[in-house]
Automatic annotation (TrEMBL):
This is Ribosomal protein S11. Keywords: Plastid, Ribonucleoprotein, Ribosomal protein. NCBIfam families: PRK05309.1. The gene is rps11. GO terms for molecular function: structural constituent of ribosome. Belongs to the universal ribosomal protein uS11 family. It comes from Lobelia cardinalis. The lineage of its organism: Eukaryota, Viridiplantae, Streptophyta, Embryophyta, Tracheophyta. Pfam families: Ribosomal_S11.
Amino acid sequence: MAKARLKWVSRRPRRRRKRTRRIPKGVIHVQAGFNNTIVTVTDVQGQVVSSSSAGNCGFRGKRKVSPFAAETTAVTAMRTVVMQRAEVLIKGAGIGRDAALRAIFKSGIRVTFVRDITPLPHNGCRPPNKRRV
């Protein structure tokens, strides 16, 4: 009688390689906060094609907020997408917003326009009462 051979199973799950998507025109959303930078690439309808964040690229702690992390995030998000033209929407006041925009320009994609969509309060919340001692 032959012995039953066990299959060797790896404990680490295999990473599937993201396949490239071809879209003629897309929208690149850059959200630059004080703790992280998130770059999302969508098509014109708004369906997400690719996304990346500084934490996803391997940056932790203070380095997640750096301009270099934002640049790496933008390059990683656009790696799986092939497109000719793009609109860029930037949200937030973090220091990674300029670096991410620079990386988008360097990638060779023709940028049609750049819009800042940072939410600004018209009047804001009610301030706390004056302190009485």
